[in-house]
Design brief:
Helix content: over 70%
Radius of gyration: 23 Å
Strand content: under 5%
Shape: globular
């Protein structure tokens, strides 16, 4: 009876967290951090136009002409650094706290953005390439650190919606940069202001997060006793009352990750999502221009439409998720349902895009916008599933899967280059779309059949049980030897 009373009490605490708390402030800070992070990630992609054609856009500033091959090396240098730090970032975030690793990454990246115009004048594109490589190394900690922080702060039933709110910062930062870069480049401060504004915003965020951010509720100085109890109770229920938490020096169960069917399925669907998403964002503008005769790269509104749709639909999916949470459907169904929406509908739209006739270019823009926008449902699907499987090692799991997904992102454009030998050949482009659709199909199918939202056995450290000094009632939920 004591165990039943304890569980009922725990559920009562879970139902009390309807108001805004410090955990919501942490999500807002993460949203802002990812906003400035993604703004710094894409700023060179939009500034490179003004840097290579300053005479046309703003002749008062230096111009750095370069070939398309050199440009591709400079733009890709960021992602080589980004891939390299994914796996170690998760371990570092768990060891030192997500706040430390996230602050370090954003701080260095912000300073390097402020130095970009100077580096361009001193060393030209080779120095810019090295600088972007270091920025990629710094931004490689973003997602593993964010996952580590979310796993510590957010109760399980709020995880999908609040994590989605945090990760929409990436889309918002991209939209802001696309919308303002042209104005900044043509202003009195020229293209260097794109980097100055990005870096300054990053520094401001670092100061704000240093003051108000925290790696966990236990590290926060402003959280109430009621809120910290709500968070700890709900997380204890998720672990079936196991109050033992892993020490930061606890060995990471790498082999358990590699032999875990649910995690392998999660990694597969993450890689599939990255392939399809980056095929869209990097290749569709070329397809639209070559096949449909519509240049969306030179139109800031058309360029940002897919990101705007992704941002808006994220909140629509959060609303739908809240409705589903009130039903008796399992969390695993919730994850698979939204992931299927986020990958199978774009899969169908992507194939349809390849058959849109040239005279219906407006329909093509609509399909492209919906394809990228509906992909936002994946935030409530695989994107948060790392925390479901292992709250204790969520950052490390994200580092592994995001590292492999980033490699897929780099390889997708390379395959397009092999297949599309004639950019005006629609049949070659359709093959690209069918390959991306097939990868979507297989990746999500693996997630449906082998994925789960249940905490895995290797999440908990192999330590002896000890009596909780904070909530003795949790001990009553553990079976005694005579009850086994």
């Amino acid at each position: 009876m004591a165990g039943i009373n304890g569980i009922v009490k725990n559920r009562r605490f879970e139902d009390e967290g309807s108001g805004l708390g410090v955990r919501h402030l942490q999500i807002f800070l993460l949203f802002c951090g990812l906003t400035v992070g993604f703004a710094m990630r894409v700023n060179l992609s939009v500034a490179v136009v003004a840097m290579t054609d300053a005479a046309t856009i703003n002749p008062d500033f230096p111009e750095y002409p370069l070939s398309e091959k050199t440009k591709s090396w400079v733009l890709s240098s960021f992602f080589w650094g980004y891939v390299a730090t994914q796996v170690p970032a998760g371990t570092l975030a768990r060891r030192f706290g997500g706040k430390v690793t996230l602050l370090t990454g954003v701080s260095i990246c912000s300073v390097l953005n402020l130095l970009t115009p100077l580096c361009a004048s001193l060393g030209g594109w080779p120095l810019i390439c090295g600088l972007r490589l270091i920025e990629g190394l710094c931004q490689g900690v973003f997602f593993p650190s964010t996952h580590t922080i979310i796993s510590a702060w957010i109760p399980p039933r709020e995880r999908g919606s609040l994590a989605t709110c945090a990760y929409t910062g990436g889309q918002f930062g991209t939209i802001v940069m696309l919308a303002t870069s042209g104005l900044l480049a043509s202003s009195a401060w020229g293209w260097p202001s794109i980097f100055y504004v990005s870096g300054a915003c990053g520094i401001l965020w670092v100061v704000a997060y240093y003051i108000w951010g925290a790696s966990s509720p236990q590290d926060s100085k402003s959280i109430s006793a009621e809120e910290i109890k709500l968070i700890e109770m709900s997380q204890a229920n998720e672990s079936a009352g196991n109050s033992q938490q892993p020490n930061n020096r606890q060995p990471t169960p790498w082999l358990s990750f590699l032999y875990s069917g649910p995690f392998l399925a999660l990694t597969a669907v993450h890689a599939a999502s990255a392939w399809g998403y980056w095929t869209l964002l990097t290749q569709i503008p070329s397809y639209m221009n070559s096949i449909l005769g519509k240049d969306i790269k030179s139109n800031a509104l058309l360029s940002s439409l897919p990101y705007i749709a992704n941002l808006v639909l994220s909140f629509v999916f959060i609303w739908v998720s809240k409705i589903i949470e009130k039903s008796s459907l399992s969390l695993s169904f919730n994850r698979k349902f939204f992931n299927t929406i986020g990958q199978y509908i774009p899969m169908i739209l992507l194939i349809a895009l390849g058959y849109v006739p040239k005279e219906n270019d407006t329909l093509a823009v609509v399909l492209l916008t919906l394809t990228v926008g509906i992909n936002a449902a994946c935030h409530l699907g695989f994107q948060v599933n790392h925390i479901d499987l292992s709250p204790n090692y969520a950052g490390t799991l994200m580092g592994i899967s995001n590292g492999l997904a980033s490699i897929m992102s780099l390889n997708a454009p390379l395959l397009v280059g092999v297949i599309v030998t004639d950019k005006y050949n629609v049949e070659q482009w359709r093959l690209v779309f069918f390959i991306a659709a097939a990868i979507y199909l297989v990746g999500n199918a693996l997630f449906i059949f082998f994925g789960t939202a249940n905490v895995q056995p290797w999440n908990d450290p192999p330590a002896k049980p000890r009596r909780s000094s904070v909530y003795p009632e949790l001990e009553s939920q553990k079976p005694r030897k005579s009850e086994k």
